[in-house]
Amino acid sequence: MKVLVVGSSSGCGLEVAKLLAASEEFEVYALVRNLERATKALDSTSDKVKFVLGDVTKPETLAPACEGMDGVVCTIGARAGWKLPGSVMEDTPKFVDYLGVKHLAEAAASAKVPKFVLVSSMGVTRPYSPISLILNAVKGRVLVWKLKGEAAVKEAYSQHEELGYFIIRPGGLLNKEGGQYKIIAEQGDKGLGTIARKDVAVIAQACLQGLCPLSNVTFEIINGKSKPPTDLKEVLADLKPDK
User: Fold this and answer.
1) Where is the signal peptide (predicted)?
2) Smallest Cα–Cα separation from 148: which of 138, 160, 136?
């Protein structure tokens, strides 16, 4: 299965690329702006990844990258928040978390990529919750733009019945070992919690593998306090498709 990972140089994307590359089931491609940085981040895994130069803020680079892929996993997030007028804005949430995601989803849908996995964020529909207020104030309304990015994925993929999307909204992200605690999947964006980035990668992989019983679905994930089940199908079994 050929999968394009976008955002593989850090965070959840790095964990996704490493996890997929460790399996013979996947042929992993990484869309990167800086080849040296990506190679360094992936370390020994870089030998198992094929790099494609591209940038989500440059739509013309995305169509060739998506061609022939069986899945796309998008984990991108803006590095900057607010900027002064007149500054370069391409690395702010509007241009990355919204327009970048939009460009990528449209390119993937046009290339008929069967599965599109977006890692978004818990709390995107609750702009007035304390945590959301802080994040939006400090990081340039990032959750507002992430929600618009989700909508763009739905719009692009809803035009093709044979294609499907999976929108994953993790809780607070932690750099901890995965597989230590149960993964809880919920819908409705009502919960709070944290989750290991490695566990987010496991769920993204599960969506690619067909362990989620349906597509065109949006859900939140956090870690519980009990030990994880052996079958990920249990985690995703009760999800309902988006209306």
Assistant:
1) none
2) 136
